[in-house]
Amino acid sequence: MFERFRSFIENLAGNGTDKIAPDDPRIAVMALCIQVMEADGEILESERRKVRTMIKDHYDLDDAALDALIAAGENAESEAIDFFRFTSEIKRHFSEEQCIDLVGMLWEIVYSDGKRSEMEDHVIWRIADLLGVSGRDRVLKRQEAAAKLDVAEETTAQQDE
Question: What is the largest CA-CA distance in the chain?
Fold first, then answer.
């Protein structure tokens, strides 16, 4: 499933070593990853490592290209006032299935520290909604991420629909 996602992005953006264009949808993906990391008020090293590994693998980037993409994502995220800027860019370039897969990636970031918070639930709920991902698919991806990372799904948040 992720191989199709990677192939789509590679065709869209060229290989990972090209200079990053301002309208590159990878920047929007990175900015959303950063917003998910920041959702609970602290960015842990486990979250940083998870994002670096996932993005590097999905886009087949070398370290320099990854660092450039992270910097571009951080810059875009710091200028954003909401998620819409990024989700609208992603919706223009991604299929429905790719949007669902992206929500799964975001859940993996949440669970990389072994727990999820109410704020993380809310952020992903909002992003998924803007991407047109159903509540059912959002919850399924959350469960898949928890199972993949062998994390209990306990939280104080109860936003499942």
Answer: 43
